[in-house]
Amino acid sequence: SLMSLRKSNPDLRAQLITNQLGFVNASIESIVTPFDEVTFVDKPDKDNRLVKISVYKYSIFQSTLYLDCDTEVLNSINSGFNLLNDYDFLIRPNPTPCGYSYKFKLPVDQNDCTLFNGGVWFFSKKENVRYLFGTWKDLFVELGNSADQPSLASTIHKMRNKIKIYPLSMI
């Protein structure tokens, strides 16, 4: 993700938030990295998704683009940051309906609900966005910590009237 991000957005600062330093035999202070900032979260590997869902807490930026490590950035992403002037949270809806395999904590029609791409999103540091992340984390834990999609979808459906969400498929 970082290499493709740097290619199309060379001036954008980047932070790595991770709980996995097993690939290096060094302290966090001595790691040479292409990231502008590295934040190590002292959590076991089984809590990877909890770290992801807690990224609001760890981000050093007022406006943040979250990318999963397997995401490729093909163009400038400035329009996403510009949209944060009018929206709180930007995320791409998944074109496939959620179907049968997810348990939701809300009364939503499982054939009518939307899943979202949990690997690419923009957010601003605002109180309602902090609340979104807190709700997402609470639902994730309540559903058994196995998948972040059902808790993310439930959270967005629950908060759709309280937060301005922009569908990234539009940019």
One letter per element, helices H and strands E, the order comes to HEEHHEHEEHHE
Strand order of the largest sheet: 3-5-4-6
Largest sheet: 4 strands, mixed
Count of individual beta strands: 6
Q: How does the helix and strand content classify structurally?
A: alpha/beta
Radius of gyration using CA atoms only = 16 Å
Through-space gap between termini: 19 Å
Number of helices: 6
Q: Helix content range of the residues, please?
A: 25-40%
**Poorly predicted tracts of residues:** none
- The overall pLDDT average reads 82
Shape: globular
Question: What is the percentage of strand-forming residues?
Answer: 15-25%
Describe the model:
- The protein is α/β, with parallel strands linked by helices.
- The chain is 30% helix and 21% strand.
- It contains 6 helices and 6 strands; from the N terminus they run H-E-E-H-H-E-H-E-E-H-H-E.
- A 4-stranded mixed β-sheet has the order 3-5-4-6. Strands 1-2 form a two-stranded parallel sheet.
- Helix 5 packs across helix 6.
- The longest helix has 16 residues.
- The radius of gyration is 16 Å and the shape is globular.
- The mean pLDDT is 82.
Name its key features.
alpha/beta, 4-stranded mixed sheet, two-stranded parallel ribbon, 171 residues
